[in-house]
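Practice set, problem 2.
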Amino acid sequence: MAVASALIGAAATIGGSLLKGSGANAAAELQAEGNAQAIAEQRRQFDRVQQLLAPYAQGGTGAFSQLLALAGAAPQQTNWQAYAQSNPALMQAFNAQRINPYGGGMQDLATFAQQWQQRNDPRADLSQFQTGGMDAQQQAISQFERSPMFQALARQGEEGILQNASATGGLRGGNVQGALGQFRPALLNQQIQQQLSTLSGIAGLGQNAAAGVGNAGMQSGNNISALLQDTGQARGYGALGSSAALGGGLSSLGDILGGALGGSGPISAATVANLTPAAASTILANPSIF
C-alpha cells in the first residue's frame, strides 16, 4: 500500500509539474501574441504617417530640383534617350531585343542605352548629351519666361505702359520704347527671385516631411526592436519555467519513490528522467513490483 500511495503521489507530482510547465509556455505565447499585434500596429501607423507626408516630400523633391536648376547648381546628367536616338546601331539593338542580354528582361531605352554605351562605346563623348549647371539654368529660365504666369504679367505691364503713354500723348516717344525695352528683363529678374524664394519654401516643407518620415521610421524601428526582444525573453522565460517545473517534479518523484522502497534514499531526478515512457507506465500500473 505504501508503494501504491507513493506512486499515486508521484503521478500527481509529475502531473502538477507538467501543468506548471504548460502554463509557463502558454503565458509566454500569450505575451508573444500581444507583442505581435503591437508590432503590426506600429507598422500600420508608420505606413499611415508615410502616406500622409508623401505628397509634401514629393513636392519638396520637385521644388528642390527646380531650385537647383534656376540657381545654376543642378548636377550634370546624361540624356540617355537623346544619345540612343543619335546612334542607329544602339537603336537597332534596342528594337531587336527579346531577352535583355544584361539580365532582367526588357528594359526602358535610357537604361538600355547606358548599358550599351558602357559595353560597346566606352570612349563616347557624352558632353553634347549632358545637362546641368549653366545649361540647366538657361533652360529653366527659358521655361519660366514662357510660362503662362510670366506671359500674363508681361502683357499686362506692357499694355499699362502703352496706355499711359497714349493718354499723355507720348506713344511714339523714346522714353516709351526705353521703358518697354527695360520692362521685361526687370520683370523676369523680379519674378525669378520670387520664384527662388517660393521654391525654397516648398523644398523646406519637403525636407521637414522627409525628416518626419525618417523620425517616425526610427521610432517605429526602436519600438519594434524592443517588442521583439521582449518576445524572445518571454519565450525564453517560458521555456526555463517549463524546464524548472518538470525538473522539480522529477526530483520530487525521486524522493517519493526512494522513500517508498524502504528508505534506501531518494532516486535521483536524472534516473527518473531516463526512464522510458513504457517503464514509467509499468511502474505506475504495477506497484506490486516493489
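Problem 2, part (b): a different protein.
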Amino acid sequence: MTPLRLGILGLSEGNGHPYSWSAIINGYDSEAMADCPFPAIPAYLAERSFPEDQLTGAQVTHVWTQTPELSAHIARAARIPHVVTELSGMVSDIDALLLARDDAEHHRQLGGSFLRAGQHVYIDKPPALSVAELDELYAVAARPEQIFSCSALRFAEELRLTDSERARLGPLRRIVGTTPKSWERYAAHVLDPVITFLQPGPVQDFELLTEGGAVRLQVSWASGLRGEFEATGRPDGDIALLYVGEQVSIRKVFVDSFSAFRSALRHFITGVREDRSAIDYRHLRELVSLLELGSRTPDARARRSAVERPSDSPGSIHSR
C-alpha cells in the first residue's frame, strides 16, 4: 500500500503538535528533536521504540509554518523532506492535511483551500469556538466527511472508567473536568472525552463562573447527570476527570500524550483511506456548543436554560 502523503502546518503559541504528530508518523532525529522548544515532546518520544511504535501507512512529506527557519527545524527533527514557503503550493502535492494549530480563529483561513480542493483535513482542537464558526468551516468543505477534529484525549484509556470502577461508583451523579491554561484552547481536552465516554445528551441548564483567568462551566444534562468543567488559566497542572458516583468518587489523570496522539492520528489516516471521518458533525456541534457557553461575554454570564440540541447532520450547511 502506497503511504499517504500528509502535509502539516502550524505552529501556534504553546502548541508543539507539528513536532510530535510528525514524529509519531515519520520517526525523528534525536539530535535535532533535542532542540524542540517543547521539552516534554523529546522526553516522551525517547520512552518509545522507533520505528516499532510509529504509525504506518502515511508519511508527513511537507511542512509549512510562519517562518522558513521554524519549518526547517521541524523538518529536520521529524524527517520531513519538503519545506513549503507558500501554502498554495502544498495543495496539489499531498493527499491530506494536518492543521496542527489550536487557534481556532485561523482554521478556516488556513485550511480553506485544502477543504475546497476536496482533501481530508485533521483540524486541531477546537475546530471552532461557536456553532456559527463551525458551520462556516463545514460550508467551505466540498463534503462533510473531509473534516476530522477532536481532542486526542477522547482516545486516552487512562481517562476511561473500567468495568470494576463503574461497579464501585454506583450510579454516576456528577463529572468534574479540570485543565490548565485557557478555556478557548484547552477546555476541549475535558469536554470531548466526557461527551465521548458518557454521551450525556442535550444540556438543559448551565451556569458560567469566572475568577481571574479561570473559567468554570456548570451544566445539567437531560439525563440527570451534572458536569463541572474548569480551565484554570494557570500554565501548569493536571488534565483530569473526577467521576462522582453514589458510592465513591474516582479521579483519572491524563498522562500518556504519545498514545492518545497516535490513536487520533491512526483514526484520521484510516478515515482518509476509507473516505470518511471518524468524528461526525453532530459530535463536533455538541462539543463546540459547550465551548461556546464557556466563551460568553461577561454580561451574558448568568444562568440560562434550554440549550439547543445539536441537529443530526450538516446537510443544510452544504446546500449553500
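Answer key, part (b): The two ends are 37 Å apart (CA to CA). Residues 158-254+289-305 form a domain with the Dihydrodipicolinate Reductase; domain 2 fold (CATH 3.30.360.10).
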